[in-house]
């Protein structure tokens, strides 16, 4: 038996007309007696704008991850012990794409469904709404509101018995787009880390533009007054005029603050020799946090979204590695950040979400970041690089 | 057992993943032996653009009410004896929101599903399409095309054994709206009245604008040549230039009239000491009608929509109590009719639809209206107050 | 028993709340012992953007037709022996209308679902996106993304035991449209022809405009380098400047050609004494093809769409009989091609798709066309008649 031997369960497959509504499996149901305890389940939601939405939950002894196949395999939340990665949006339902109109409110329709811990904003376009060739590119693209065409649960039959949830997201439009993304979320039982590995393929015969922002969002308990974000910074600038005033305090967070709205910063992180960087968000006490590790060669820029308005407004911060900042595509294009994927080519994206449940884990991540930063210069640009 | 003791049946609940497709209960199925006969049922529709729509019907000895949970708890029709409150739209199916695009035709997409006796036009905005801040506000808002997130049938266990159908409508959009409305429709067995009690709550931490029009629509048999509308009028004006010519005849109706299209009048009604007013619509003979009673402190203005075009075109009149007239929101705002709901505040709306099945009932309603009018002045404004 | 006696099976009926998910019947299940073998089946698709889509397949000894009730009774493909009528779009799923937004990309949303052999582009409007009265008319109208309100399978009980699949498509919008189309697809067991008979009725009391293009699309194996289209031509002109250069070679096809994109030609065909014309598409060798026969009195103009780009881009040609060319409605209106259907009137459209599986059949169709052309003049207009 090779390391790649795995139990594969197909939960969705448009090609074979499969959509399993309710399903679950435990480690003991499978012929892998050495594996630690886990439970993987799928359910279909009913009622209101949740009708038809699906959820997959992976639960181990110390981790619970919930993702949403009908919303582009987005991650709804990750929980480990007392730490929840996720947030409480005023959108408190898992909205099914049938109820979405991305083009409403001048292209802000995406906000009707936004409540995930991680949304893929892409891949054909991302960022604030804008027009190119008289066509509206709505906020943050289509992937996050595209139901998966194929979903496969795969469990390695050899230690460490990694669990993989794979989902295929198709952005197919005649003449315009044939981008397909195989998303993989991996959990190793016993670890408090969730790994994301996406492979974006341009199936067309033409080079095509792409943009992606991994919009990763965290509220309480990590986010609170005095919470802090750390990252090795090569360059930082305010997204817009409003953020200029918050530039000096970009690393620390206010508590829920009425009328704060949001401040956004554009960062270029430094990375280690392998191109990897870590962004750490931790609470005031420094004993709970999340480390987002990713490959800066794939995702060169980082948007930091500080939405520390009131709790009911959705008290949340976004750590958003991407190929682009959140400007409309035409601005991203002018400034050279819109990427091209060659005909037939595949681009991978790798991210890890580490749940940090004690001081030691937080300190360790902080040290990693300090090591990457070393004595390298930080360029602080005081004015926005673009005006929307 | 207190008066509030009630049998509660949950038919929809997104929070608990409940959506019951087919269901019914009769009085005799419940442990309330003194109650008169009733039948309450729910069904799910299939095929075409009805796929997934739900209907709840409440039937007593002399009343049958049908409402549509998937369309904002709208009332499809009320029938008592020979009198039907409702109308025959060219849209002859109960369109599911998944098939709606409110923004099509420059914001007139709502017309693809319009056939109810009562549609809630609100609550974030209402009126004809318009733009604010570059964002299209489509015709008559979203509530009427929002599926209920929670539906509860509640039957009082003590006389008069009132039946309540409660539904929760969420207009939640990150950054923009956190308006939730608990709608309650009440029928007392034996009575030919349907009561609506809505509670709109602004769950956000910010004051938010709201607008609402209770778009209540009646065709045959009440509407016919010589049918008449009565209301205590403080002020009346034509909605637009076309209505100027119909101002003098605003109270009477033509039969189905080709090329009539629609005439709309803006009214401010007088009310009694409690702020209540009654609008009466009755047939020519005066032996069938509907009385709409409501609280003018909640709904200060009244739109009268006379759409006496041909039968196939949808021969119908609208009696539309509201906070606003049907002008686009920017006009309503300029003229000071857009209301504000404070953070955390709740605003109630109460309306009653009385089915009048004989001359005596019609006369009684007419007398009520005459009493409210008394000798108070009627201001007739001959020109429209706004131009769209 | 009369010739019209038939077995009728209702698969969808919104009026009676019928939507049968899975169904099939064979000739031997019916009390028509003389009939040749056939199998008619319906299935409902699941997963991704196919969730809820339905397919009906009619299979005889030498023909298999698949149509899509949820997409306006469009024909997905017709297969006879080695010949497949249809094509391979980058849109490789049967997209359910709930996932469509026709207004996206400036009105090009239709391209998200386009992969059929025949799509009805109409009936309220058709053609490239345009605006009239400030309202966007999206690409190719709504019919092709409208689920059927009623579907009836009808099998004649007498020879030749014709099989009819009837579907009702409603384009109903209060104030704007009350166009209903009964589509009928007929297959006679043993024949390799599919007949389409549509009856468009204007149910309103007002004359209403209509437009229709029967967008009929063919790829491999018929389409290949050296494939040829034949039709009796009265007039031909290039759709736009790009097509000017292809005018001289309009009858022949390139193989898959990178950067070819599409060339479109506007044709007026000649017809026979009964108004019928035939368009033949055949492969290079001339032993496989399709003949599209239709009534030019119903469908006076013909769009020829040569989309011989790469295979992955969707290598396909469209033979598109219509009342209009593919210009936006405002241009079609200016040039007098927008038709009017009187109040209450019905307009029929009749087309036949003949699968040609050998040289003899191809030659026969070619002879028919030559006969219609005879020595009649061909007017070649070298410049586009309109600029979009």
Automatic annotation (TrEMBL), chains A, B, C:
InterPro entries associated with the record: DUF4432 (IPR027839), GH-type_carb-bd (IPR014718)
One Gene Ontology molecular-function label: carbohydrate binding
Coiled coil: none
Superkingdom of this protein's organism: Bacteria
Protein name per its UniProtKB record: DUF4432 domain-containing protein
């Amino acid at each position: 038996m090779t390391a790649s031997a795995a139990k594969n369960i197909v939960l969705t497959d448009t090609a074979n007309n499969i959509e399993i509504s309710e399903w679950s499996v435990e480690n003991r149901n499978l012929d892998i007696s050495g594996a630690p305890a886990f439970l993987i389940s799928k359910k279909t939601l009913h009622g209101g704008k949740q009708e038809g939405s699906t959820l997959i939950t992976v639960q181990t002894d110390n981790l619970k991850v919930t993702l949403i196949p009908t919303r582009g395999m987005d991650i709804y939340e990750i929980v480990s012990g007392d730490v929840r990665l996720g947030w409480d949006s005023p959108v408190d339902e898992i909205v099914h794409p049938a109820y979405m109109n991305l083009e409403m409110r001048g292209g802000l329709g995406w906000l009707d469904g936004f409540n995930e811990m991680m949304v893929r904003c892409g891949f054909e376009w991302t960022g604030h709404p804008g027009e190119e060739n008289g066509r509206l590119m709505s906020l943050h693209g289509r992937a996050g509101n595209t139901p998966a065409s194929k979903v496969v649960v795969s469990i390695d039959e050899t230690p460490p018995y990694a669990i993989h949830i794979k989902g295929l997201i198709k952005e197919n439009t005649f003449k315009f787009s044939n981008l397909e993304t195989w998303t993989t979320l991996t959990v190793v039982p016993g670890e408090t880390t969730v790994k994301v590995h996406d492979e974006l393929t341009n199936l067309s015969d033409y080079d095509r533009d792409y943009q992606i922002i991994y919009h990763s969002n965290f509220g309480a308990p990590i986010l609170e007054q005095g919470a802090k974000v750390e990252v090795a910074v090569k360059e930082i600038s305010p997204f817009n005029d409003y953020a200029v005033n918050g530039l000096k305090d970009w690393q620390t967070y206010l508590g829920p603050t009425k009328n704060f709205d949001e401040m956004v910063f554009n960062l270029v992180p430094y990375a280690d020799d392998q191109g990897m960087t870590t962004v750490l968000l931790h609470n005031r006490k420094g004993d709970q946090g999340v480390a987002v590790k990713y490959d800066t060669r794939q995702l060169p820029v980082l948007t930091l979204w500080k939405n520390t308005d009131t709790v009911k407004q959705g008290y949340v911060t976004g750590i958003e590695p991407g190929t682009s900042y959140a400007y409309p595509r035409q601005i991203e294009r002018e400034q050279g950040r819109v990427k091209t994927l060659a005909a037939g080519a595949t681009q991978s994206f790798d991210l890890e979400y580490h749940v940090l449940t004690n001081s030691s884990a937080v300190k360790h991540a902080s040290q990693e970041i300090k090591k990457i930063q070393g004595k390298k210069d930080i360029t602080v640009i005081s004015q926005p690089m673009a005006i929307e």
